[in-house]
Amino acid sequence: MAGVPADSVVRRCAVLSVAMVLVPGSFDDPAREGVVLAGLALLLASSRVPLPRPLVGVVSLVASASLYIYLTHYALFPPLLEFFPPAVVVVLSLVGGIAAWRVTRFASRWRSVVFSRPLERSAAGVRSSVGVEKT
Asked: What pTM was estimated for this model as a whole?
């Protein structure tokens, strides 16, 4: 987000000014554009967003998976609307994005563990992971 490095009032005002120029007309819905600008203004105005402790885990999970939620909701939302009410489809889209994020995270960690060990040549010329001799 562009507002993150905006650590002074002048920079925050500059980010908000740029958003006020770029957001109108982006969604073809003035109400939605107003919500986006108001949300950005609130985030820029406060350095912290207080949350009740029980919500911290849920909000952190959704924030961590937000890119995957965004990327997968286009594939999930329209087909699911044929079978479920919109509120249920929103929850299922969130769950699908979180699942995609977790699978990607697991695969990334697995890959780094499996492929991060350098291979050495043993005396017999057999390639093996460090510390594990293969015959």
From this structure: 0.61
